[in-house]
Amino acid sequence: MKKVRTRFAPSPTGRMHVGNLRTALYAYLIAKHEGGDFLLRIEDTDQERFVEGALEIIYRTLEKTGLVHDEGPDKDGGVGPYVQSERHEQGLYLKYAKELVEKGEAYYCFCDKDRLESLKQEVAGKEIVVYDKHCLSLSKQEVEEKLASGVPYVIRQNNPTSGTTTFSDDIYGDITVDNSELDDMILIKSDGYPTYNFANVVDDHLMGITHVVRGNEYLSSSPKYNRLYEAFGWEVPTYVHCPLITNEEHKKLSKRSGHSSYEDLIEQGFLTEAVVNFVALLGWSPEDNQEIFSLKELIEKFNYHHMSKAPAVFDVVKLKWMNGEYMKAMDSDTFFEKAQPYLKKVLTKDFDLRKIADMVKTRIEVFPDILELVDFFEELPEYDIAMFTHKKMKTNTETSLEVLTDLLPVLEAQDDYSNDALYALLLRYVEEKGYKNGYVMWPIRTAVSGKQMTPAGATEIMEIIGKEESIKRIKIAIEKLSK
Ligand code: GLU
């Protein structure tokens, strides 16, 4: 069997959309599952869409996500250059287009803007130009003359107007279209650059790509690509078109809803491993119900024959859950390193951030969750004394006032504010009085945090904020409760 070769062929137009990341991942997994090669090709022939810095984003994203390419602009594998504008400069695309012209499979078209404008028709509410093959009837001599006198031109594919073309996609099956629907698409633009439609075929062939993995927006053009392969006498690759990704409302993903690009997700506090894991499941699922996969496991288990045709829903709730699972599984050092910038956003005093990080690790789904969870360490928030009432703990404002008033002098006399010492101290009080733990711990925790939910218990919080601040907060509580 031929060695599997796939490619990721992004256009350098900005941040990497999750749809593109999924394409890259699937192309990588299909190759690696079979011990094949994964190539990176830069498709920069649309010079108007080029965005400064986009190349760096592509390299960085592939590196961070672990989708290491075997060949690419920075790793020569003998079929380069791997950047389309460089291939264009070598005259490669024009050479192949001319070959098709020779064969009668393509032709020069000199129609100007005005003429094309007049061909516009409305199809399904959209204005499109269906070219009428006007220039196909030009004689060889007429073409030569126009070329010699520098009339601007494009080169178009010459598609039949009757009969059908069938192509086969490994996910979507056989698709047959009427040839009358295949417009004579442009292969070489008036600026001399090839279109995506032409360059992808030429490059995939020359680079020995066996499996073309891409978004399903290219599905409808694939019959035309097949005609190009056949016109050249080249073997048609295996097509793997990936299903659409939608948001929870089954609409196109948008930047507004916050799930547009890999970098956006990282900025929102998601972990790379979780994003990759999540994206892998947008259009594919394993035979069992496993949901958490390392990249290595994905390589082992990914079988593109089990990809789905149905649109995949980008479910942020699920991504958050998954991210939380990755957080829990992370070792404490790594977590601390990543959590630190968030902790420092709200905690400026001399706290033991390491301890606080350990407290929140199992309680968050994304890093920004940290902010709300720990801000009370820095400053006691305004709170309502209704919080002292807790049915299960059998506490209310009166019992709380009594316990806090009782304990204030005890806590003032205590010097060791370590969690262990404080806990032992409070336990002694609990036993002496014959109370239940919560009856004492609840009012103290409420007093020192001013919050209903905290990432740690009363004594752990007191250890972090220290004696002076703890006493201050308990006095505030007593004052509030005495009113
Ligand atoms: N440059 C195209 C894109 O970014 C690539 C499509 C393909 O993978 O063939 O959409």
TrEMBL record:
<dbReference type="Pfam" id="PF19269">
    <property type="entry name" value="Anticodon_2"/>
</dbReference>
<dbReference type="InterPro" id="IPR000924">
    <property type="entry name" value="Glu/Gln-tRNA-synth"/>
</dbReference>
<dbReference type="InterPro" id="IPR020751">
    <property type="entry name" value="aa-tRNA-synth_I_codon-bd_sub2"/>
</dbReference>
<feature type="short sequence motif" description="'KMSKS' region">
    <location>
        <begin position="252"/>
        <end position="256"/>
    </location>
</feature>
<feature type="short sequence motif" description="'HIGH' region">
    <location>
        <begin position="10"/>
        <end position="20"/>
    </location>
</feature>
<comment type="similarity">
    <text>Belongs to the class-I aminoacyl-tRNA synthetase family. Glutamate--tRNA ligase type 1 subfamily.</text>
</comment>
<dbReference type="GO" id="GO:0004818">
    <property type="term" value="F:glutamate-tRNA ligase activity"/>
</dbReference>
<dbReference type="InterPro" id="IPR001412">
    <property type="entry name" value="aa-tRNA-synth_I_CS"/>
</dbReference>
<keyword id="KW-0963">Cytoplasm</keyword>
<dbReference type="InterPro" id="IPR020058">
    <property type="entry name" value="Glu/Gln-tRNA-synth_Ib_cat-dom"/>
</dbReference>
<keyword id="KW-0436">Ligase</keyword>
<dbReference type="InterPro" id="IPR045462">
    <property type="entry name" value="aa-tRNA-synth_I_cd-bd"/>
</dbReference>
<dbReference type="InterPro" id="IPR004527">
    <property type="entry name" value="Glu-tRNA-ligase_bac/mito"/>
</dbReference>
<dbReference type="InterPro" id="IPR008925">
    <property type="entry name" value="aa_tRNA-synth_I_cd-bd_sf"/>
</dbReference>
<dbReference type="GO" id="GO:0005524">
    <property type="term" value="F:ATP binding"/>
</dbReference>
<feature type="domain" description="Glutamyl/glutaminyl-tRNA synthetase class Ib catalytic">
    <location>
        <begin position="3"/>
        <end position="321"/>
    </location>
</feature>
<keyword id="KW-0648">Protein biosynthesis</keyword>
<dbReference type="Pfam" id="PF00749">
    <property type="entry name" value="tRNA-synt_1c"/>
</dbReference>
<comment type="function">
    <text>Catalyzes the attachment of glutamate to tRNA(Glu) in a two-step reaction: glutamate is first activated by ATP to form Glu-AMP and then transferred to the acceptor end of tRNA(Glu).</text>
</comment>
<dbReference type="GO" id="GO:0005737">
    <property type="term" value="C:cytoplasm"/>
</dbReference>
<dbReference type="InterPro" id="IPR033910">
    <property type="entry name" value="GluRS_core"/>
</dbReference>
<dbReference type="InterPro" id="IPR049940">
    <property type="entry name" value="GluQ/Sye"/>
</dbReference>
<feature type="domain" description="Aminoacyl-tRNA synthetase class I anticodon-binding">
    <location>
        <begin position="335"/>
        <end position="478"/>
    </location>
</feature>
<feature type="binding site">
    <location>
        <position position="255"/>
    </location>
    <ligand>
        <name>ATP</name>
    </ligand>
</feature>
<dbReference type="GO" id="GO:0000049">
    <property type="term" value="F:tRNA binding"/>
</dbReference>
<keyword id="KW-0067">ATP-binding</keyword>
<keyword id="KW-0547">Nucleotide-binding</keyword>
<comment type="subunit">
    <text>Monomer.</text>
</comment>
<keyword id="KW-0030">Aminoacyl-tRNA synthetase</keyword>
<dbReference type="InterPro" id="IPR014729">
    <property type="entry name" value="Rossmann-like_a/b/a_fold"/>
</dbReference>
<dbReference type="GO" id="GO:0006424">
    <property type="term" value="P:glutamyl-tRNA aminoacylation"/>
</dbReference>
<protein>
    <recommendedName>
        <fullName>Glutamate--tRNA ligase</fullName>
        <ecNumber>6.1.1.17</ecNumber>
    </recommendedName>
</protein>
<dbReference type="GO" id="GO:0008270">
    <property type="term" value="F:zinc ion binding"/>
</dbReference>
